[in-house]
Amino acid sequence: MADNIIVGAGLSGLVAAINLAREGREVLVLEREARIGGTGLYHPSPEGTPMHLEGLERYTGIDFSPAAAGPAVAPFQVGRVVAYGEMIPVDMDAISSYMIERGPRSTSLDSYLYKIALAEGVKFEFGRAVMSNDDVARLPADTILATGLHFEAFDACRVPYKTSFHFVARQTIPDEESNHVTVYHGEFTRDYAYTASTNGIQFAHVFQRDPIGKDTLKMFEEQAYLSEGIEFKSWSHFTFPVPAASIRTPRLFAGNKILAGTLSGCMESYMFFEMLGAMVSGKIAAMAVTDKARAYEEFKKATSSFASAYLAKKVSGLAPHALQKRVLPMAFRHAFDLPVAAEVAKRVMPGWKNIA
Q1: N or C: which end of the chain has fewer CB within 10 A?
Q2: DSSP designation for 203
Q3: Alpha-carbon Rg of the chain, whole angstroms?
């Protein structure tokens, strides 16, 4: 029997595994998919996210720089917002943002961390789903549950969630046209949509915390074509649980188990940025195996902005599209006129306060 079991080979599970293995522990990771890289519903996918790379390395002991991680982590070429039809450039350097590839390809961040974990002696069992309450109960104390966006684990650990509704599409493009993100706000969703590209993958994602239909998708397709000249041939539709049903969602423990990543609520609750939070929470989960009090203090720091983002989303969700159409373009045009604005934007990211 391994010293420590981790359920889930996503970013938080891999970071936790690497840190525990470096302490001399025997670590076994159980992953429901047949390979690294998460669900095929969503990955491979490019994601843009604020990341303090030097601070993240100090905190986790893992080098995430482009020099080390290769194409898995890349500087932005273009960042912009389309707010009700108006395209506005965004200074991605001001908010320390990078393009990340997720998924099973060799160029992904998942694969980079997996290679490090193997080199540290971590063992993996693929095709091992932990799905029911009984499955979770049978796991030993201090098992780390880092299962990502799967309903079964939220239900088993009694973590409140909202069901979110998604359309995604992907296609290949030349590598030299990669490393961009365009975030869309418009009448097609009460949340947002985006297009993104890295390492030759072009991706689009439309989602909402309430049901969305093909009329929504059609409106977004028209806007993406008008704004960027992009057309996608086919779309997938699915649902995910997101930890945004309660202001008290974040939790590090469920009984005698340790939670990490999105299951722990270490996810920004306004726009659902989660990659930085996932990696920081992986380190915190590893810490919790031997020092629960210290880990809990670190977790509180990592999720300290959850409540304010949750309330901000509740308030903004009350605004009709007519008002948002007047306010959002102006807000994005002047978003970083003051240096403090960029600092605030970074500090609402789960985990930023731990590493900055």
Answers
A1: N
A2: E
A3: 19
- Give the mean model confidence (pLDDT) for residues 123-151: 91
**Angstrom distances, CA of residue 143 to CA of 137, 179, 191, 258, 266:** 10, 37, 34, 6, 18
**CA neighbor of 317 nearest in space, from 147, 184, 191:** 191
Residue 281 predicted with pLDDT over 90: yes
Structure tokens at 298: 């670190």
What distance in Å separates the CA atoms of residue 323 and residue 199, rounded to the nearest whole number? 38
Phi, psi of 207 (to 5 degrees): -145, 165
Q: Decide: helix, strand or coil at residue 215.
A: helix
Residue 46 amino acid letter: P
For the segment 6-45, what is each residue's pLDDT rounded down to a tens digit?
A: 999 999 999 999 999 999 999 999 999 999 998 888 889 9
Q: How confident is the model at residue 41, as a pLDDT?
A: 83
% of the chain exceeding 70 in pLDDT: 100
Beta bridge partners of 181: 79, 196
- Give the integer Cα–Cα distance in Å for 48 and 63: 18
Reported as a pLDDT band with limits 50, 70 and 90, residue 285 is: very high
Residue 213: CB atoms within 10 A of its CB come to 10
Q: What is the distance between the alpha carbons of residues 178 and 113, in angstroms, rounded to a whole number? A: 22
